[in-house]
Specification:
Number of helices: 5
Number of strands: 5
Length: 135
């Protein structure tokens, strides 16, 4: 069991390998411990094992979409206080409203910038302090 990292544990759920890799690279550079999942089912199994501090979830995914995944996370008493940030390539009012209904804490439009990603973490995890040296 290698739990050497004391970084913030962040989960990124997206069916796009590019998005997962981009987010993982950005987050690891600031000292985060990143767990990735390809869809909602994959994520739910990993969330129980890893207890992330914050979760980024894509809306459009096969099998279990981001809304369903967020609702399942928020309906679980152990994880309902975990911030869930929705990721979407659509910037529609309807999508944002639906995200709020299922309990998401914030909504980011893809492609997101490093600043947006870190800003979301800082907004929901008050004791997060990015480390700008890791590479």
């Amino acid at each position: 069991m290698e739990q050497h990292s004391d970084g913030l544990r962040v989960m990124v759920i997206d069916d796009s390998k590019t998005i997962r890799r981009t987010a993982e690279t950005l987050l690891k550079k600031v000292g985060c411990d990143v767990i990735t999942a390809v869809d909602g089912f994959d994520a739910l199994a990993k969330i129980a094992d890893t207890h992330p501090s914050i979760i980024f979830v894509d809306i459009m995914m096969p099998r279990l979409d981001g809304y369903q995944t967020c609702a399942l996370i928020k309906n679980n008493s152990a994880f309902k206080s975990t911030p869930v940030i929705m990721l979407s390539s659509k910037d529609g009012l309807f999508d944002k409203a639906k995200g709020r209904i299922v309990g998401s804490d914030q909504y980011l439009t893809k492609p997101f910038s490093k600043e947006e990603l870190l800003g979301a973490i800082k907004a929901h995890v008050p004791d997060f302090a990015p480390v700008e040296h890791a590479s």
